[in-house]
Structures are given as C-alpha cells and as structure tokens.
Amino acid sequence: MTELQKRDLFPGALEMMILKSLQRQPEHGYALVQHIKRTSNDLLRIEEGSLYPALQRLLKAGLVRARWGVSATNRRVRIYELTPAGKKHLEVEVSRFEQMLEGITRVLAPGES
Amino acid sequence: MSLLARIFRRKRMYSELNEEIQAHLQEKIDELVTRGIAPDEAARTARLEFGNPNIIEEDSREVWHWPALESVWADLRYALRGMRKNPGFTLVVILTLALGIGANVAIFTVVNTVLLQPLPYKDADKLVTVWGVNKPLGFDLDFVSYPDYLDFKAQNRVFAGMGASTDEMYTLTGAGEPAALIAYEFSPDYFDVLGVPPLLGRTFAPDEDQAGKNHVAVLNYRLWKSRFGADPAILGKSIPLDGSPYTVIGVMPKSFAYPPDVEIWTPLTPDPQFAHRRDNRWLRVIARLKPGVTMEQAHAEMQTIAARLSSQYPETNKDQETRLISLRQMTTGDVRPALTVLLCAVGFVLLIACANIANLMLSRAVARQREIAIRATLGATRRRMIRQFLTESIAFSLVGGALGLLIAYWGAAALVAMFPPTIENLSIPRIESLPIDAWVIGFGVLASLVTGVLFGLAPAIQAGRMRIGESLKESGRTAAGGAAQGRRFRNALVVLEVALSLILLAAAGLMIQSFLHLVRADPGFRTDHILTMRVLLPDQKYKTDAQELAFGQAAVTRIQSLPGVESAGTVTFLPLSGWWGTREVTIAGRPADPAAKNPRPVWDSVTPGYFVAMRIPLIEGRYFTEQDNSSNENVVILSASLARQVFPNDDPIGKLVNIQGVDKPRRVVGVVGDVYQLGISVRQTGVTEDVKSEVYMPYAQFPTHLLCFVIRTAGDPVSLAKAAQQEIWAVDEGQAISFVEPLSQLASETVALQRASMVLLAVFAGLALLLASIGIYGVISYSTSRRTNEIGIRIALGASRSNILRLVIGEGFFLTICGLAIGVAGSLTLTRFLSSLLYEVRSNDPLTFFAVSVVLFCVGMAACFIPARRAMLVDPIVALRYE
Questions:
Q1: B59 neighbourhood in chain A, CB within 8 Å
Q2: Of B468 and B349, which is predicted with more confidence?
Q3: DSSP string spanning B604-633?
Q4: Which of B16, B51, B57 is opposite residue A78, by nearest beta carbon?
C-alpha cells in the first residue's frame, strides 16, 4: 500500500539524503538509517521500511552500486556506494533543492509583500 | 543495470534482498539487546519499528517488476480461475461470443477474398476496361469496333498498353471425347497488358494475329491438366480446333482465369469483311493506366478521342462516347452491395450479443460486490480494477473468438455456394474456396478484442464506481444510487438490442419478399420439366447450311420421338444461359436512315417446337411450322415489345422487315410473348432496356452453328438426359454436347446470389431475435428478483396477482416499445441502402415493417412471461422475511 503511506518529506528527499550519506562514505542499510538519524539530530526519522525500496530504485537507476562486505559487527552485509552518475545526480538535486528552499524562504519572510 | 542483466540476475537479486533485510533486522535486534532489552522483547520491538519485512521485501521487489505485464498476467490467471468456477455462465458467454464472432469472420472471409485480395494480375488496380457509350441507341455499356480500337490505341497518351478481346467457341477433337471449349480471342499484346507471365512457353507474338500465323493457342491450366494430363511436352504439339490444327505455344498458371471459365486463348483475327466497319462493335477492350495517371484523367482523354472520331466519322461515330470501369469493379461490382449489407447485419448481431453479455456481466459484478469491496480496501485502485475486469472480458472474448474461428471455417465452406460457377455476365467472381489466411485471423483477433472491450467496459466502470462501505454491509441490497444507474444502463442496452433486432428483421423481411417476387416473376417462359443441352457444330465439318439443317432437323425429330418427351425444339441462344446476340430490325422498303434509333433486339433461330416446349404464348398470327423452310417465303416472328417498337401504330402481321446481316427481307407471321433472355434478376451491362425484345427466324431458313436443345419432358428432365444425348450421337457420333442440365437449375443459379443473401440475412435476423429475447428475459427477470421485497409488500398490502403481472409486464412492455420505436426509425433510414438489392419491393414497405414489429413485440412480451409468473407466485411472507 505504498500510495497510502504518509510522507512528510517530498518525493525524492529520501533518495537525496541517501545519496548524500553515501557520498560521505559507503555504508550498508542499517548504518545508513543510523547515520541519517544522527546527522539530522533526530529531526528526521525515516521509516525503515521505505529505505530498501528507495535503495532498489537507486540501484535500478544506476546511481549507486552494491557489493557484499562485512560490517563492523562482523556480519555479512550489503554495502552501497555512490557511482559517478549518482554523484552528478546528487549535485543537480541539491542545487535544485537549495533553489526551492530559497524561494520558499523568501515567500515566508515576515513583513515583505 | 541493463535489461538483459536484470532478467538473469533477478532470482539472485531477490535472495540477496531477503538476506539483506534479515540482516538489517538482526542488527536492529542486536542493538536493542546490547542496550539491555530481553531478546524476544527486542525482537518484537525491532519488528514493530522496522515494519513488516515481507511487505518491505515485496515493495523492494516491485521496483524491479515490469508492473504492467506482471499484474496483467495475474489478472489473467484470476480470470481463468473465475471462468472455471462458473462453468454455466462461462459456457453461455463463450458460445454466444463464438457464434457472433464466428459469423463476422465468416462474412469477412468473403469480403477478404472478393474485395480485398489483389487480383492476380500485375498491378491490377491500374487495369481498366474500356467501353463505348452508344448514346443514340441508349446503350450504356457498348463494345468497341475494331477501327475505333486501333484509333484509341494509337491516339491515347494515358495508357501503357491496350488490348482487345472477344469470345469464341471451339470444338476440340482428337484424343478423347469431342469437347466444346469456351475460348477468348486476345489481341497479341493482351497478355502483356495483364502482366501475367505464362507457366509454360510463351504468349502471342505481335504478328500472330495475321492469317497464316494465327493458328496458335494458349491453354488454361485446368484444360492442360484435365485434357492433356499436364503433359510437360505440350509445347509445339498440334491440337485440332474446329478441325484445323493449332499449335500450343503456352500454358497459363493455375491462378490465371481471365475471363472466368475460359479454357483456351487464340489470337484475335478480325474478319476482313466486317472488321473495318466502325459501326460493327464487338470488342471488349482492356487497358493499363500509365503510372501516375488517374481514371479521371484517362476518361477525359478518351472522351476527347471519341469526340474527335465523332466529328471525323459522323455516319458511324456521331455522339459516341466512352466509359472506363476498373477491372475490380467489373469483376465484383454486383456482389459488393450484398456483401456490404451482410457485413453490417452480422455486425449488428455481434453488437446485440455484446449487449447481452454486458448485461450478464453486470449481474455477475453485482454478485461479486463483496469481492470488489475487499480488493478495494486492500489497496486496488480504480484503474487496477477496471483493468482486471477488462482482462477478464478480453479473456472470454479471445476464447470465444478462437472457437468462432472454427465456426467461421465451416461457415466459409458453406458460403462458397454463394458463388455459382456457371453464371455468365454477372460481375460475380469465380470463387472456389474461401481461405482463412492471415488477414482473416487478424480480423478475428481484432474483432475479439473490440468485442471484449465493448462488453467489458460496462461492468468494469460499474465496479470502479461502487461505494465500498455500502457493499460491505450484511444485506445483499446495494445502495439506491448505484443500482438505479446500473438499472438504467441495462435497460438502455436492452432497448438497443430490440432496436437492432428490428432493423435486421425488417431487412430480412424485405429481402425475403424481394426474393419471392423474383422467383415468382414470369420470365416469359416456363422453366419446369425442361432439359437443355448445347451443341456447337464445328465449322470444318459443317461447311454448308444444308449440313447444319440436316443435323438440326434429324436431331430434333429423333428426340421428339423419345418416350417421355412432350415437345422439343432448338434455339440459338438459350435464355438464362448468358449467351445472346443482337441484330438491328427495320421496316423493309423504307430508306435507310443512319441517324435513326433502330430497335436492336436479341435474335434467335428456332425450330417450330421451341415455342411449344418453352410455353411461350402466341399473341397474334401463328408459330413457325414445318412449311417454313427454304423453299417457301422467308418469315419471321417478333416478340410483343419488338412489335410495338417497330410497328407502333400498325398491325405487324404481314409486314416485311429487314434484319441486320440477313440479306432478304422477311414477312412477319406471328407475335409471341416477351422472353427475358437473361432472366429477371440479371441486369446485364450492355443494354439499358430489359433484354426482352426478340426477333425469331425459323431454323430451316436460317441454320446456325450453335444449337441449344430445349426438351419438355413428362417426368423428371434429368432422367432423359442420357437418352437425349444418345439420339444426338446417333446423328453424329463425334459431336460434343455441353451443359446438359434442367432449365430449372439454370434459373436457380441466376438467383443464387439473391437466395444466399436472403438466407443469410434471415439467419442473422433470427439469431438477433433470439438474443434480444434472451436479453429482455434477463433484464426483466433480474429486475423482478431484485424487487422481490417490494412485490411482497405490495401483495401484503392487497395487490392482486394481476396487478403484479401488470407491473412486471409493464416494464417489459415499456422497454420493448422503446426499442421498437427506435428500431423502426432506424430501419426507415437504413433500409434505403437495400434498395439496389430489392426487386419490386419498396425499402419502406409498410406491411413488412408492421409484420416484423408485431413479431418482435410478441416475442418480447413472451420473454417477460416467465419472470412475470414468478413474480405473481411470490409468497409475501417469504419475501418480507428475506433480508
């Protein structure tokens, strides 16, 4: 029932954040979740259930690639890392997001008409 | 990832995904445990926080799906399962579909073979036939004279090639029984114009139309096979035609049959005595358009040439024009209107079937409300549900269509009977088989798909619209809003069915009436109890008139003496055979006026017994007798129409007339009834008047090579066939006899197309009636069963049985009357397209309309009867308890 899921974030936000996290360093699924939670100071909580479909979409689009490795806890995990295409896509998405943010900020600025 | 890589690695991907997700979960649990929570508590919390791993896995997998295809496949499997669960329903639907689609495909095979497939000549669409228009005589389609043909050919700039032909008959002797061959004489380049290369050997060389070089022949494939055993060494062999040796120079391929029934081709050799005359019009001309030239341009050019000739040769060519008809139109023109009507009719039947099935599916959808509701709550979108319903209906229609193809296969075999093989002069193609080729199958698939969508759309949209909350209620009744809309739609469907049925019934009724008129119309002679045979005396053997005369008289005398023969005679051109000739008739002694429009009747040379055998009535004067021979005065008999034409104000008896091509004037001794030489039903292209004016000469005074025997028998004519032939062979044992058949059979064949159309249309109309009545029954029955409560209440409140009856019948009455009204209106507008097929019946004949309306009305009311009875028998207590 993906359509009825409530998304507080706009579509694409999750993918953007995943890509950004992976830009910092390649990680596996669980670590990604923790990373985003930590970096956003707990302001953003992603439903872990939506993580994996998002990762698959990124895989399908060729923006990340995956390989099997070992986690810090010696567990066999699948580690994702950014591809060059993913890097480029991230830059484009971030700049668009910043434009949008600026626009919204201006409109919401108090007193201005 | 590339598509190919994806396909191969899918399975591995899925298992990896599974592993990954389990690992994630495990990691989560571990972390909780390290924080001090108990393992099973940790497991539960982790799972809660994470979500259902199965769903997550499925969602992740779905990213890689081809969603459309996969779910369509799932829908299909679901549909098939549903079909198996309701075998009764499935059977009804599939049978109805098979009949409807099958009938359509069957008719399409005819359309395909006759109208759509390319003619077997090179670039056949560029081939046109060239005719004259003889304005002074009122001939719409006239043959072309030899000098005119040469001028057309030399002066035009629009045709890449032009050829001329005429029909001929030869007697083939030599090895085997003598046979009369139907032949065509072709100008040397005719084959080139058609553009079909011979199977063996060659076609005519440019100089082979000259005397001395023209005894060459090209054989038809069938003749080569049957007569010469497909001898590969046939080329160069000599065969005797009419006693003269002809060298075989080529054999045409199997598919080449131009014109139909022609067995052999020889070069066109114009008779020097007559061929130079421009007013001697005897040639059929064909031409090939140059690339880029349209029919209109060619026609304009030909008209210019004709005008030029008209001013150059005013005695013969004044006001002569030309007319071009495409070859395809020539060969299929008469069949086209009938086929169009049949295609529409069968389309209507399919529409009615769709309406019925749509109604059926709508009822079924209502019964499946629960299922639909659950699917909706589980997240099926409206679009998804519509798609699922459509998949179901298309599945039904494809299965039905496949079965229909089988029905069409048998049907097509029966339809070949629509094209009788021996009809001359009709623009009906020779059809030996109606193959089911790729086009036909493609049409079948398309028809199935369209049908499926048509009847599937209604329940699909209905399902999409249902309000979920209502349908999950315990009570089986739906909310008022949805049901009312559904009801109106279903009623509309039934009204449509009734209307379409009425149109079909009206059309069928008109065709039946037309056919009956046709068959009962008097062609001027009797066709029962008559045996006919045709004999062509070869030129080489019968060189003189006296020889022909001797043969004819001896043969007739012998046949007349056979037991069981009431009367016998001969005629040159047997009526209904499609053979005919015309000669101008003028009053003798008057100065020849070339501008005058002289009558040009059919001519015949007959023995005295002919009129008696054919029961042609004598109106004035006398029949021929034995005394009308070469030693007595030359006499002639006119048909009534001709008498009126030649002698509008006088009594023709005793007057002298001149007949074209006959040197001495002849005295009129009798007037007989008109005879329709070509039958009533055939509108021959060539003359605009009915071919019933006729001039007769006695055979004893004007013997001919061609003799058609007409033998009236006391019993079954076929029983005397052998004996009659023996008598002819007793006179000349080598003589070929052809077309030995009863006259009634010929008569039947001339109306074969009309008969077939009528039968088919009647069958379709009957089918439509049946389907419409089932439709009415279904809708009334359903609506009544839904109103059981209401009926129970009414009865409890005091309504009598007859009140209930009136209630139910009233609904049916209303629907039927609406359908009738729309149907009558529709018929009045549509049946006018039938008028070209109708004989002496008005396309808005009120009697027919009234009769079929009454029939449909009664059937409609009868269909309401059973549900009405059921309603009357409703027990109010049971009905009210039903919740």
A1: 2, 49, 52-53
A2: B349
A3: EEE-THHHHHHTPPEEEE----TT-STTS-
A4: B16
